[in-house]
Every structure is written in structure tokens, then in C-alpha cells.
Amino acid sequence: MRRLALILLGWVALIDADAADFRRTPSQTTEAELGRAGALDGVWQWTLPDTPNGLRPTQSWHATGSSPDGDIYVAAMDHVTNAALYRLDWRVGKLQFVGDARSASELVHNWMPGETAQKFHTRPLWHRGKIYVATMDRSTLDDAYLTRRGFHWYAHDPVLNTFTDLSASEPGGVAVTHGNVVTIAPDPVRNIIYGASVPTGEIYRYDIGRGRTDVLGRPSSFDQPYAYTGRIMWVDSGGRLYFTASSSKNPSVYGHVHYYDPETGFGERKDWILQEEQALEVGECLANGKQCIFSDDKGHVYRFDDEGPSWSYLGQIETGQQLKYIWMFDVTRDMSKVYAATSSSPQPSDFTSLYEFDLTTGKTERLCTLAKLGPALRDLHIHTGYDAWDPAGRFYFASFNGRPDQSVIVTRIDPARLKDALNK
Question: CATH assignment of 2-423?
Fold first, then answer.
């Protein structure tokens, strides 16, 4: 709900562009973007290019991810018409366009007149050799989603270099008649992908073998028709899916972790408390999914351990500022530290900073303003992405301001080199 307020109050006029603007003259090719050095050692940056059919990627909501071989995937969109996926080869720093929703669906005649795909909000998910994303066409917490066609699943095969509309073979050409997906999580044993919906908080299950989406419903305890769906969920070793939601109307109903068990259905862990009844926003699972670190957008940090399983609160990322959001969050592989960045409502970028949170001591260190990393970030106040590391120990995030003339900037940080540069 906080993000909805930010969009409506901060820059809704900037993204409410005429959908006809999307139909610009297509480019014939998309050149590889090799990026450029930032202002400090250990920083590198790229600008996401327009797609061949004319989409200018101006936003990227929680949409960075990585594959086991270290390639980084970034989804971006204009929040009006279309969404696209990009791949960054970490070995040579080459960023290229992979595919977009509209083109992939048009290829299989599954794009209706007037249809749009405002976002790939889902973090690009690697599962059994492919990268999966899904569309969200309405993110407001009301019944506007009922006026739109349901969402599509898409998959990128890096070996075949294809980007495919998986829902083209589903009844009606969509996963559900009406609905959107804000986050997804895999069950590698059952070969399924779960999705959490906006605005209803329902849970969907996509069976990859069958090529079909099932609507599982939602916990019976949810007492509001629309709630803020947590932006991250996860599956434990037993196949149980954990997720969160929040609502200002009756926060106590949502102030803990809920789950879906394939054998027993929906349930609650009322002992797994959420601070200030805030849904989880970002996180990362390590040690083959046995240990996870999560945060809400106020910086309350939690740890999940598969053995038990168990849940613990580790403290809060202290920024010393009000009205700031934690939407960028990367946990080191040894689970000793978190690198997080703040975002703000439209304000000068000096109000957004990079922090290091010690998971052992619970102490926060402010490293620098994000504007200090390079001139490309000086006018950008929204920074998103989580769990996006390459094998060289560098993390990646996306930055934007929502203006239709400003493309998304992707930044890579080598934390050791950056800290050395800051200390000189």
C-alpha cells in the first residue's frame, strides 16, 4: 500500500502516457551494452536499451535475479504498455535484450487488441535451466484488475535463446481469467512455480509439466478482499510455501507468516511474528535454500532456518531517516552482511544511500549516498532488486525515477573495492 501511495502521489502523471506512444518505429537491432565505470572504484553501470518494438524501459520493480552460472537478469517496463527482460553476461559485462511480453505473445497470436502488460514485477526466476517471469497489468488494491485480461507466464531458454509465452497453450490464452502476479517461487521437487496475486493475495500454482495454472485460493483468515501482498515468498525442503501480506484495516490478521502445504492446505505460523505487521519485501535464500534472510521495506531483518524450521528477528537497518523504503537488498554468501539501499518519494537523490548491515551484531553502517557512485544516479531516487550476485562477489541493482524519458540504470558493485575507495 505504501508503494501504491508513492506511485499515486509522486509520479503517476509521469507514467500515465498515451499507450499509442508505444508504437514507435521499431529498431532493427539491439546493440550490446558494455557499460561504463562509475565515479568510484568497484562500480560499473549500464543503461537498459529500448526494445526492437519501441518499449523504453523506465522502471524496474524488484526485478533483478541471477542464474547459477552467474548471469544477471533484469526485467523492466514502462508501467503502461509493456515489459521486457534483459540478460547481463557477467564475464564480459555485456547486457542485451532477451524478449518482451508483447512480442512473445504476438508471435503466437496471443495478444489481444488494447492488451497491455504494465510490469514484469516478479524477480526473474531460474528453474531447471530456464528463466521465468510473469505479468502484472494492474497493481492497485481495488477491482481494476477485473477490467483486464489475466496474466501470462513467460520463459527464457538461454541455450536456445528463446523467450516464450507459456500461457498461450492455457485455456483462454492466460493463466487465470483475471489477475496479476507480484512474486513467484519454485518447488524444484514437484517441478512447479507458485505465484502470489495482487490485489487478492491468492496463491497460484503453475505445473510446468502440464502447462496449466491452478488457483489454490488464500488463507481463510484473510478478512479483507484486497491486501498488500508480500513481494517475496519461499519453499522449504518439505515443499511448504511461505508467504506474507499486510493490511492497515486489521493488521493483526496479517502480522505473521502464512503458508500453503501441498498435503494439508493453508495454515499460519502465528509464532513467526512480523514487526509492525509489515509484509516481507526482499530477501535471499542460501545454503541450497536451507537458510534465508528477509526484510520488509522498513528494514526489519529476519532469518529463516529450514532445520526445525525456525524463525528469528535480527534487528532493523537503521537509516536515521523517515519515509524511506528498503527495496534493494543483497546478502553476502557467508551470511555475514547485507548491502541495502534506500528509496524515497520524489526527492533529490542525496536522500538515498547505500548501507551495510552486520547480521551478527545487528549494526548498520552508512557507506555513501547513491549519487556518489556515479553521475547517472544523481537524479534517480528509486533503487530495487535483491539476490543478484555474480561469482566474482559483486551485486547488481536497478535505479529509476519513473520519468518517460529516463531509462533504467543497472549498477554493479564490488563491495570490497568500493569500501577501499571510500576510505581513501
Answer: 2.130.10.10
pLDDT confidence bin for 3, thresholds 50/70/90: very low
List all residues 6 or more positions away from 282 whose beta carbon is below 8 Å from its beta carbon: 62, 231, 232, 294, 295, 297, 326, 327, 328, 329, 386
Per residue in 310-332, pLDDT tens?
A: 999 999 999 988 778 999 999 99
Which pLDDT score is estimated for 14? 37
Question: pTM for the whole thing?
Answer: 0.92
The chain-wide mean pLDDT, for the chain, equals 91
Bond before 309 cis per omega within 30 degrees:
yes
Statement: residue 363 has pLDDT above 90: yes
Q: Where are the domains of the chain?
A: 2-423
